[in-house]
Amino acid sequence: MQSDLFDRDHELFRESVRGFVDKHVVPHLEKWDADRLIDRETWLAAGRQGLLGLPVPEAYGGPGELDYRFRFVIQQEIARVGASALQSGFSTNDDIVLNYLLRHANEEQRQRWLPGFVTGETIGAIAMSEPAAGSDLRAIQTTAVADGDTWVINGSKTFITSGILADLVIVFAKTDSAAGSRGFSLFVVEDGTPGFSRGRKLDKLGLHAQDTAELFFEDVRIPKENLLGEVGSGFAYLMQSLPLERLGIGIAAQVSAEAVLGWTLDYVKERTAFGKRVGEFQGLGFTLAELQTAVEVSRAYIDRCVREHNAGTLTAVDAAKAKLWATELQGRVIDAGVQFHGGYGYMMEYPVAKAYIDARIQRIYGGTNEIMKEIIHRDLMKA
To answer: Where in the chain does DSSP place strands (E)?
Structure first.
C-alpha cells in the first residue's frame, strides 16, 4: 500500500523485523495457540534482535528511539503473518506498561525496571479492569492503604493481558474514596510478592496465544518505593497514556485490515467458479473496490496520527477517532474476507479465519468503541 510515512532507516529496520518474524514467529504459531501462551524465549529473541523497549533511554540499556514509526513497522510485519496475539503482547509491553514507566517512574525505579523491557526479560501487565468495572474505571473496588513504609493492596482484576507471564503489574487502585478522580493511584506489584496470585488463564474467543488472566491481591504489601508517580494522580496518568494505547490499537487494526485484504485479493484472483476467476464477478468486485478505497483513506489518517504522536501533538480525541474508525473497518474487511474465501474462510488453517476471531476484541479493549464515540461527541459539543 502506498505511503510516504517511512524512510530508508525504517525499511532497513523492516528487514531485521521480517527476519525475526519468519524465524521466530511463523514456525510457532500453532504451538502458541495450543499452549495458550507465547514462550519466553520468543521475548528474549525479540530483545536480542532489538525489537523491544525502543524508547528506553541509553542510560538504561535501550536505544532511546522515540520515532514511533519503528513500532509501526513491527506491527506491520507481525500482521503480515497473522500473529495478532504476539502483537497484543508486544503492544501491552511497549505502548502501555513501558509508557507509564517512562512517564512516571523515578530514577531508582527506572534503573530497577527499564533494562528488562529492552532485553525481553521483563514482561509487564497493567491491571485496570475488574469483574464489575470495565470502561467505567471510577467504579473499581481494589484499594491501596498506606501502612507505615508500605502500601497494602486488596482486590481483584480481570481480562489482564499478559497476566500469566507478567513479571511486574501496574495496578490501578483506589487510595481515597472521598477524593473523586483524585482518589486513585498507580502501584507496581512484582512477581512473587506475598498475597499476589493469578487465577485461571481465561478461555477467550480469539487471541488464543495471548495469555489473559484474573489477578488477585490479598493483603499484598509493597514498599512505598513501588508507588508510581504521585498519590492521587492515577486517573490523570491514565488519561495521559490512553492516546498512545488507542493509537496502537488503531495501527494494529489498520495493518490487519491491509494484510487480510491482500490475502483475499490473492485468493479471488486464483479461485475460479462458473468458468472465471471469483474476483471478476461484479458484485464481489464492487465490495473489494469499496474496501480498498476505505483502507487507503484510513491509512492516510493513521499515518497523520503517527506523525502527530511523534510531534507530541496527538490529542485524545484524534486517537479515539483512529481507534474507532480503524477497528470498525478491520471488522468489515475481515468479514468480507471470510465470505469471499467461501467455505475455506471458515477453516482455521486459513489465516483469514484466525484473523476473524482475533479481531473482535479490537472494538472492546482500550475503551469500547461506544466510549470512543462518546469522547468524540463531547468534543463536538464543546461551546
So the answer is: 124-127, 143-147, 150-161, 168-174, 184-190, 196-201, 212-223, 227-228, 272-273, 276-277
